[in-house]
């Protein structure tokens, strides 16, 4: 039976079946919310305890000079802008290399496929630091002299482009074949299909992976210090070596890199959540 307003009737002082099920669902939802809150609180408290204990141990070790850090800490922190600039520009260039590499790896033309495969094999088979120093020191012997900043940017982008080639290749292959066939049925040229149909969707698919690579790039950007780029690590290393206080300067640099990765990881997670919600709506 139902009331005048169409609501479930109450028989014998008890709610109808629909009201009972809604109450159970709400109770489960609240229990899960409490469990998530409890988990987050324990997580935060654990971090606070461990970090606090480490900070206390370091502070009591007598290896930290507040006066020295107050004087040279801002100088080291001044390299953050260069670090972010190197990471951003390098990841943008790396996307370009990755797209070309992915298209080459998907090509049915043997020479193009061979060049793309050789690029991936050589880059992934050699250390990044060797590639950076090779561009900086070896290429000038052949008359190719690049600015140190350009050397660092190119080497990082060239290296990450090889690793991201497989990411883009997987993203392109993840698209439904029917979309490409529909575009071909409309007599669209292959290049136009790639620009208008394939690549926009593939880039959307690989955005989370690009975010992971960017966070890794922030840390690997420290390697460009070997070609005299004054980013965070370069400033921390030179200052610590000059005053024989490497523990303090490298600790500051480590905290800066850690802070940057936490910040960008937060935004990456927000972006992934937003993309997941949009996929559900679609």
Report on this structure.
The chain has helices spanning 17-60, 66-77, 80-106, 110-124, 128-138, 148-173, 177-185, 190-220, 232-243, 246-281. With 282 residues, the chain is mostly helical.
Core attributes:
single chain, 282 residues, mainly alpha, MetI-like fold, 2 domains
Mean pLDDT score: 86
CATH-defined topology of the largest domain = MetI-like fold
Biggest sheet statistics: none
Helix/strand order, N-terminal first: HHHHHHHHHH
Span between termini: 39 Å
Rg (C-alpha, Å):
27 Å
Low-pLDDT runs of 5+ residues are: 9-13
Quick overview:
With 282 residues, this protein is mainly α. The chain has helices at 17-60, 66-77, 80-106, 110-124, 128-138, 148-173, 177-185, 190-220, 232-243, 246-281.
List the helices and strands and how they pair.
Blueprint: H1 17-60, H2 66-77, H3 80-106, H4 110-124, H5 128-138, H6 148-173, H7 177-185, H8 190-220, H9 232-243, H10 246-281
Helix pairs in contact: 2-9, 2-10, 3-4, 3-6, 3-8, 4-6, 5-6, 6-8, 7-8, 8-10, 9-10
């Amino acid at each position: 039976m139902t009331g005048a307003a169409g609501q479930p009737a109450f028989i014998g002082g008890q709610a109808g079946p629909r009201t009972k099920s809604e109450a159970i669902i709400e109770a489960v939802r609240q229990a899960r919310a409490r469990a998530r809150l409890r988990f987050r609180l324990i997580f935060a408290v654990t971090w606070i305890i461990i970090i606090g204990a480490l900070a206390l141990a370091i502070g009591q070790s007598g290896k930290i000079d507040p006066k020295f850090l107050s004087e040279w800490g801002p100088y080291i922190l001044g390299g953050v802008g260069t670090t972010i600039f190197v990471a951003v520009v390098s990841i943008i260039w790396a996307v370009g290399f990755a797209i070309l590499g992915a298209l080459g790896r998907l090509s049915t033309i043997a020479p193009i496929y061979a060049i793309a495969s050789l690029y991936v094999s050589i880059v992934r088979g050699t250390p990044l630091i060797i590639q950076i120093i090779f561009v900086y020191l070896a290429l000038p012997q052949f008359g190719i002299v690049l600015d140190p900043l350009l050397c660092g940017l190119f080497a990082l982008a060239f290296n990450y482009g090889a690793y991201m080639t497989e990411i883009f290749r997987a993203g392109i292959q993840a698209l439904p074949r029917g979309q490409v066939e529909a575009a071909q049925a409309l007599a669209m040229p292959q290049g136009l299909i790639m620009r208008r149909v394939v690549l926009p969707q593939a880039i959307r698919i690989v955005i989370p992976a690009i975010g992971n690579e960017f966070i890794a790039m922030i840390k690997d950007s420290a390697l460009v210090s070997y070609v005299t780029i004054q980013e965070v690590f370069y400033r921390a290393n030179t200052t610590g070596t000059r005053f024989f206080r490497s523990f303090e300067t490298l600790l500051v640099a480590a905290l800066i890199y850690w802070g940057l990765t936490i910040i960008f990881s937060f935004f990456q997670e927000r972006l992934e959540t937003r993309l997941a919600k949009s996929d559900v709506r679609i």
